[in-house]
Here is the input.
Amino acid sequence: MITDALPATRRPRGLLPAWLVRMLRPAPYSRDWTRVCAATVGIGGPQIAGLATGRVEEAVLASVGALCVSFSDLTTSYRHRLRRVGLTAVLGAIGFTAGAGAAGPWWAAATVVAVSLVSVLSSRMGDLWAAAGAQMLTFCVVATGQHSQSLGLGAQVLWFLCGEVLLVAMVAATWPFRRTAPAREAVARVFDTTVRMFDAAGTDRAIGIRQDLTRALNTAHDILLGGASTSRSRVHDRLYVVLTRVTPIVEAAVALTHSGDRPPERVVAALRELARSVRSGDLPAPHRPPAADAATVRALDAGIADLIAAWRRAKPVRVRGGSRSVRERLRVWRGSVTFGRTTWLLALRMSLCLAVAECIGLVGGLDQGHWIALTVALVLKPNSGSVFARTVLRALGSVVGVLLALVLLALVPPGWVLVVFTAALAAALPVALSRHYGVFTAVVTALVLLQMSQSELFADALPTVRLVDSLAGCAIVLGVVALLRPLQPRADLADRIAAVTETVSEYVSLSLAGVAQGRSALRRRTYRDLSDLRAALQQQLMEPAAGRAERWWPTVILLERVVDAATERALLGGHIGDDRLQHAQRLVSGMRSATRQVRDGGASPEVLRAHLERVYTEVCAA
Here is the structure.
């Protein structure tokens, strides 16, 4: 039977369960010094200016404004990144103004609940609005907890805006240095990952690296085309040409790796040279390979030669959607925005949790009760994966962050020395944000507590109070989510796997029949669907009730291997005997029949896996 290890871990022999080990494992991170510099200057700079001028309260507000924008700053294309932080600055300022302008505690609670509805609904309008809407709610809650005696509403909002503008300006200032760097790095990583896959050929690591290759292709596609409808420069034109011509190379590489063979060293050297040229901007030399006996090596050489030739003669091109008018784009955008039952249930969950949090703070007479609502808002942020995992990591991160803040506040004297540690935590924030939510929570908790300790405005925000309120917010989320579970439409994992299996069967049919038209586009869609399915399963594998996802995991691995085998079969080409082709097509029909049974609830993961194993064996032997 063909199976594969669960992601990131086998069941450990120690004290920690497998789902917790998966939850604690950090994600890979690509260094981006522009984000680090922007966060350091944007968050730490106002603190330094405040100490130098004696206007600490204003400096804290500016630093909080920069913190708002930094939460949405990610490594992506320059234009998309600037739009993301710009929209966050606008909505973050609106949320802060609404929270700070609330006339009394009960009005503040009502304002938070109202803003939460807008935040959840905005998450259905795309990635940019989801990120900005989340910060609008977060800093609306933050604003309800501050009570300044010396600054009016206008002054508070102004200083908050100053911090936002500072960080947006830092991001904008990266244009001369990083305008094309994210796109270059993303495309170069495709070739780097292909070389890594060749190095692992014939080993168990090859499958995992092939999945990394799929993610690298998806990331490159999203960075090059995300947020842009037309080509911006000749660099992007060439990178776009490289990305569109890389498909034959990827197909040949997958087929070669699937067979367990490694290409000649000249091919590996050519791929390394392509990665170097993409990063440096130099044109690679033409690729003139000698004749090779293996069909997959010939296909790989041909793909490299074709890519380099197209790259060298690349001219400015129009990327998809460039001819659409503003009205047409607006119509397409409106058609993609849907507020279904799931959206309203998410809004109900958020508003109910926040209402409970605000009532506890008000009825209990807590001085800093807004920390409870803040925890709820951060944990229930839409489009952010498993709520259970985020709740657990939020609790663990809060404990670590409070302990770190207590140590620093006890050992480091207030003033300039403490600002140095604040700037260091600000520099670590982008790395933590990209790697692990628990680490990010620890860093931002310690950072906020150090910021607040500089100002009398937040003198009562003691670390111990912050910890208790955070844990209370986590408990509220778990309780309300459990209460609303019967109302939530269960994301049927079987239906999703059945849909992906149907796509795989279509790709296998085209590959075995030798149909070239549309096959490459279908291969890309198939791999992306498999990547999305794998990500969905990994979210469920980080929860205690991971048994059902664990049962489906080998099926997902087998689906990926079937696609790899079909890619190899299509690349090798040649004549397939009628008997063997008919037999393979009958197996594909059987796989589709099993898929329908899975969707109807009449087939288990083991039944579908048995069909897939027969298809895989037949495709490999074709």
The chain is about 75% helix and 0% strand.
